[in-house]
Design brief:
Elements: H1 4-26, E1 27-29, E2 32-38, E3 56-62, E4 69-70, H2 81-87, H3 93-111, E5 116-123, E6 128-130, E7 143-150, E8 157-160, E9 175-177, H4 178-184, E10 190-193, H5 195-201, H6 208-223, H7 226-231, H8 234-252, E11 256-257
Parallel strand pairs: 1-11, 3-6
Antiparallel strand pairs: 1-4, 2-3, 5-7, 5-10, 7-8, 8-9
Helix pairs in contact: 1-3, 1-8, 3-6, 6-8
Length: 261
Amino acid sequence: MATLAVRVVEQIASIHQSIFRAYEENVSSYPIVSVELVAQPEPDHQVEHVANPPFVVFKPTWDYDGEPVAGKHACQADVPESVKSGLIVWNECDFAVQTFLPSLRKQLSSSLPGTRVQWFHAVIAPVFVFRQADAGADVPDPAHSAFHITLPGNGGEYIVDFTIGQYGYGMERWFLSFEEYKAMIRDRLWYICDDEGRGESLQGAFDDKHLSVQRIIRELCDEFDWDTLKQMAESDRIALINEMTSRALCEEHCPMEHAYA
């Protein structure tokens, strides 16, 4: 998979992912006092496309009287790292795709003319899922969004997924070939979306704060010197992105509150 074009895609997508992670680490939620492992529901509680899936359900409980805490620090120390990583991107997949789609398209089309970046929607085969403490017994439908990238010619198809961690998969799987990704989700229901139609279906899905953050992140993507970012060592690049993202967000939203807590 490691052709020059694929490495370019991975680098540009990785920079966008670093911006997203910087945003997530600046988001505050109330402290999570427990993450309970819930018994797997009976088969009649399964959603249509995932009969008898081998996954578990975690139920986080927040302390609404506590002081907001940023990022993974909202979780207790004994919460597994995979669960912490999943919680901070829980319910953020549509927001991530809608926010970064314009910049990812712009940067990839500039570096690799003819590359297509599309909105990918799928029903995931999860390792685990989360549900709200006051939710009923039903497991939430594990519907999910990511980026589908098609390289020109016979360059292949790839999936970029900033929020795969919310379903228990390691974040090392954020960039896979399309075939690898379909195998991971067990080739369940998936389709490539029409941008306009998907955008319309999300009307009203984000509150004013999320829309404001989306605007800030898109402005940051336009302001970055991408040629310089590509040439920087990864650690230096991430440090710069973290600093600029944190500063930009805190100018309007400090501390950031998570919409799903």
